[in-house]
Write a structure and sequence with these properties.
This protein has 549 residues and is α+β, with helices and mostly antiparallel strands. The chain contains 13 helices and 29 strands. The strands form six sheets. It has an eight-stranded antiparallel beta barrel. Strands 22-23-24-25-26-27-28-29 form an eight-stranded antiparallel beta barrel. A six-stranded antiparallel beta sheet has the order 2-1-13-12-11-10, with helices on both faces. Helix 2 crosses helix 10. The longest helix is centred in the first third of the chain and has 37 residues.
Length: 549
C-alpha cells in the first residue's frame, strides 16, 4: 500500500468513526426529545433537563413554560425549588462536621436538643440520616396544613412535632422522614455556630461556584426563577409554603448546571474524603438486618440491573429527580415546575438510554400463542403477604393487586417475562417445585410469589343517572388547603385532589363510589335538608370526612 492510499484509508476510517459517533449522539438526542416532549407540552408548565457522561454535558434542553402568566419559555438556566434533593446537601454538611470532629454519627440528639422528649430511647444522628429514627414526620401530621404558611425558627418548629408519639422504635423500620432532616439542619447550626443557609452557601455553593443555587426565598429577587404551579381542572399558582419549614429537608433552589457541579464535586471527593463520602453511599440495615436501600441523603436503585444512586424532590409547585449511574459515570437531572408532573419515570428512561440499557417499549413486545399466555394465569401469593391476580382477556394478560380496583395490561418480552406499559415494572414467571411462580420486579424491589388457590373477586359497577351524579359536583375540603373536587361528565363521575391528576370514580351504589387507580372509596352524604353536604374518603383503613364548601 502506497502512502497516498494509506492516508486515504486513515481519513476514511476517521470519517466513519466521526459519522457513527455523531449519528449515535443525534439518535440519543432525538429519543430523549421524544420522551420529554410527550410529557412536557409547549404551552404548559415545563421542565429543565441535563444529561452528562464522564462529567461532560451530552444533553441540555428545556421544555414548556417557566411562567404561564407572562408566557415565558423555559430555559436550562431557570432556577427551581429542588425539594428533598436538599437532603443530599444536609447529609454532606453533617459528614463535613464529622470529619472536623464536631459531632459523631452515634451522638444522641439530646446532645444538641437536651429537652427533646426521646422517652428513654436513643435516637442518633445516624437514625436521622437514614429515616430510621421513628420520629413523626411533620408532613404526615393533620395539623401541618394549618401552619405551612407561617415562618418559624428551627426550635419553634421542632416544638410543633416533638411531642408526637413515635411511629416505631429507633432502627426498627425505615419510614421517609422530613422531621429528621429538619433536626439535622438545627444540629448543623448549633455545631457550626452559623445559620444553615450561610453554611450551605459558604461551605458548598461558593466552594464549587454554584452561582445559581440558593437557600430558598419567596422575597429575594432570584434571576431566572421558574414559577411553580399546580393543576386541577386547569393550571394555577402553587400553594404557598413558608420555606422556613422545609428548611434542611427541602428548601434549596438550584438549576441543572449547578446540580452537575454538585454531582461532579461529590464524585471527586471535594467536600470530604473518599472514606467519608462512602458513608453516604452505604446501603444501611435495620436492627433485624434488612437493607433499607437508603444511605445518607441518597437512595439506591437499579436500571435494568445496573445500580444507581438517586433522590427525588417534591414541594408545592415543583418536582425534581437526580439519578447517578456510578459504573457508567452518567448523571441525569430533571426539574419540573408543576406539582402535577413527576419527572421520575421520565428521568429513569433517559438514564437508561444514556447507559445503552433502554427501558422496554410496548412496540417491542413479542407474539405469544393463546396457550403460552394461559400458562401464567392464576393468583400468586407473595412473600410480602400480597396477592396479585394474573388474568387473560381478549388475548391480553392483566395484573391486578388485591385491594386495587384496576387491572393493568402486561406485555410479553419473552415467553416467561412480561412488562407493564411504563417499562419499569415486570414479571418473570417460572416453575418452582412443580408450581407456577413469579418474581415481581419494580426496579430494585423484588418479590417472589407462588400460585395460590385464592379466587379473584370481581367488583361490579352500577349505573347511576347523570342527574344524580350532578348532585355530587363541588369542592370538598378534606383538610386546610387540600380540596377534593368532584365533577361529572354525562354518566361519568370524576375526582381530583389538590395537586393531583383527575381520576374517574366508579359506582357501587347511588352514593358510594370506588377508584380503580388506588384502593379507596368515596361515599356522599346528605344533610338535614336533603342536599349533598359532605363526603367520606375511605383509604388505608382510615375514614376521612370532607365538608362541601
Amino acid at each position: 500500500m502506497n502512502t497516498k492510499t494509506f492516508f486515504k484509508s486513515i481519513v476514511l476510517s476517521l470519517f466513519c468513526i466521526f459519522f457513527f459517533t455523531t449519528s449515535k449522539a443525534q439518535s440519543l438526542e432525538s429519543k430523549i426529545d421524544a420522551i420529554l416532549s410527550n410529557q412536557f407540552k409547549a404551552n404548559e408548565a415545563g421542565a429543565s433537563v441535563l444529561v452528562a457522561k464522564d462529567g461532560q454535558v451530552i444533553y441540555r434542553k428545556a421544555f414548556g413554560k417557566a411562567n404561564l402568566e407572562l408566557d415565558v419559555d423555559m430555559t436550562p438556566d431557570n432556577v427551581f425549588q429542588i425539594g428533598s434533593i436538599t437532603k443530599q446537601f444536609t447529609a454532606v454538611s453533617i459528614l463535613m462536621l464529622l470529619e472536623e470532629g464536631k459531632l459523631s454519627l452515634e451522638d444522641d440528639i439530646t446532645k444538641f436538643i437536651p429537652e427533646y422528649p426521646t422517652n428513654g430511647k436513643k435516637i442518633t444522628v445516624h437514625h436521622l440520616l437514614t429515616h430510621t429514627s421513628g420520629i413523626k414526620s411533620y408532613t404526615s401530621m393533620q395539623g401541618f396544613g394549618k401552619v405551612m404558611t407561617v415562618d418559624e425558627s428551627p426550635l419553634e418548629f421542632i416544638d410543633f412535632f416533638k411531642d408526637e408519639p413515635m411511629d416505631f422504635e429507633p432502627g426498627e423500620e425505615y419510614k421517609y422522614n422530613n422531621s429528621a432532616y429538619f433536626i439535622l439542619g438545627y444540629i448543623i447550626e448549633k455545631v457550626s455556630e452559623t445559620s444553615y443557609s450561610k453554611f450551605i452557601k459558604e461551605r458548598i455553593f461558593d466552594k464549587v461556584n454554584m452561582s445559581a443555587s440558593y437557600y430558598g426565598s419567596h422575597k429575594k429577587i432570584i434571576k431566572n426563577r421558574a414559577s411553580g404551579y399546580q393543576k386541577g381542572a386547569d393550571f394555577s399558582n402553587a400553594q404557598y409554603i413558608s420555606l422556613t419549614l422545609p428548611f434542611a429537608a427541602g428548601s434549596i433552589m438550584s438549576n441543572v448546571d449547578d446540580m452537575l457541579k454538585w454531582q461532579t464535586a461529590i464524585t471527586n471527593n471535594v467536600f470530604v474524603k473518599e472514606t467519608t463520602i462512602r458513608k453516604a453511599f452505604t446501603n444501611y440495615t435495620l436492627n433485624n438486618g434488612d437493607k433499607i436501600n437508603y444511605g445518607y441523603g441518597w437512595t439506591f436503585n437499579e436500571i435494568n440491573e445496573i445500580p444507581t444512586i438517586e433522590h427525588g424532590g417534591s414541594i408545592p409547585g415543583y418536582k425534581s429527580i437526580g439519578i447517578f449511574v456510578p459504573s457508567k459515570d452518567v448523571y441525569v437531572i430533571v426539574f419540573s415546575n408543576c406539582s402535577c408532573n413527576s419527572p421520575t419515570n421520565t428521568a429513569v428512561k433517559i438514564a437508561a438510554l444514556a447507559i445503552d440499557k433502554p427501558i422496554f417499549e410496548k412496540s417491542k413486545t413479542v407474539e405469544l400463542s393463546l396457550e403460552q399466555l394461559k400458562k401464567w394465569v392464576g393468583t400468586y401469593q407473595f412473600n410480602t403477604g400480597d396477592f396479585r391476580y394474573i388474568t387473560l382477556k381478549d388475548n391480553q394478560l392483566y395484573s391486578k393487586r388485591e385491594g386495587s380496583s384496576q387491572a393493568f395490561q402486561i406485555f410479553p418480552t419473552s415467553p416467561n417475562s412480561f412488562s407493564f406499559e411504563d417499562g419499569l415494572i415486570s414479571y418473570d414467571f417460572f416453575i418452582k417445585d412443580g408450581k407456577k411462580a413469579t418474581i415481581f420486579k419494580n426496579r430494585i424491589y423484588k418479590e417472589e410469589g407462588v400460585l395460590s388457590e385464592k379466587v379473584l373477586k370481581v367488583q361490579n359497577v352500577k349505573t347511576v343517572s347523570a342527574d344524580v351524579l350532578k348532585r355530587y359536583e363541588g369542592a370538598y375540603e378534606l383538610k386546610p388547603n387540600f380540596i377534593i373536587t368532584i365533577t361529572s361528565k354525562g354518566s361519568q363521575l370524576f375526582l381530583q385532589a389538590t395537586g393531583q391528576p383527575e381520576f374517574e370514580l366508579f359506582s357501587e351504589s347511588n352514593t358510594k363510589f370506588f377508584l380503580k387507580v388506588v384502593a379507596a372509596t368515596i361515599e356522599f352524604h346528605e344533610n338535614d335538608i336533603g342536599v349533598i353536604g359532605a363526603l367520606t374518603l375511605n383509604q388505608g383503613g382510615r375514614a376521612m370526612k370532607a365538608k362541601k364548601k
